Amino acid sequence: MPRPLRRNKTGDDITLDRDWGVTLLDYFARFPTERGGVLVGKRSAGHVGITAAIFPPQQESTPTRCSFDTSVIEGVNDTLKAVRPTRLGEYAVAVLGWVHSHPRMGVFLSAQDQHTLTTWTDLDESAVALVADPFARDTRIAGWGRTCAPRRLLVRDEREGLLLNQGAKLADVLSGVAQPGQRGLWDVVGSGGVVSVRVSGRTAAHRAREAR
Q1: Are 15 and 128 in contact (CB under 8 A)?
Q2: Residue 47 pairs with which residues in a beta bridge?
Q3: 64 to each of 27, 33, 39, 119, 131, how far by Cα in Å?
Q4: Bridge partners for 39 per DSSP
Q5: 138 lies in a domain?
Q6: Quick check: is 3 in a domain?
Q7: Which of 8, 64, 97, 124 has its CA 20 to 30 Å from the CA of residue 147?
Q8: Residue 104 and residue 102: Cα distance in Å, rounded?
Q9: Please, are residues 24 and 53 in contact by the beta-carbon 8 Å criterion?
Q10: Helix 72-83 and helix 164-177, axial crossing angle in degrees, nearest 10
């Protein structure tokens, strides 16, 4: 289970609900290689609240490295704009940052991770990064922000992440706005489970739901 960090922090706390943390760790445990994605949720005074993670097709995925085309962030932003007028827009308000796994390596920011996070925060000073290792014995999720400073991670029992039907709705909208160059299998990880959608041009060719 995710555990709160007990380190000095600078900036907003990161909040997530326990079910979302468990779902994320279960998702990462399926892959022997690193996997990276985009965090979405909402910001309020003093904290950023994660409600989902969206994993685009991976350009590279090895035991020690992962990457995806950064143009997918525009696709995610377009998706959030499209759902903004709906009830789902209350939960998926903004892109918050970036998440990736460190299978069997522990949670830390490598030199490359620090460079990546610095690039994010140069564009959005409030951006955060999560690193997760589902196989770690101690802390399995940790967070950082601007200047790669650790953020306090608050795990709540109240569900804040997307339910399965909300994740499916987000995936449906994503399949309609993703650009042709962003084709492939996307995964939306919420508190209620994982929803996968295969983007083919501007039409969803396949969608699979998996409840926790």
Answers
A1: no
A2: 13, 44
A3: 17, 7, 21, 20, 13
A4: 53, 97
A5: yes
A6: no
A7: 64
A8: 6
A9: yes
A10: 120
The residue assigned the tokens 């969803």 is: 204
Give how far Cα 74 sits from Cα of 35, 56, 68, 174, Å: 19, 12, 13, 11
72 in a structural domain? yes
Owner of token pair 């709906």: 86
Q: Which domain holds residue 73?
A: 13-161
The enclosing domain of 71 has a CATH number of 3.40.140.10
Is residue 89 included in any domain, yes or no? yes
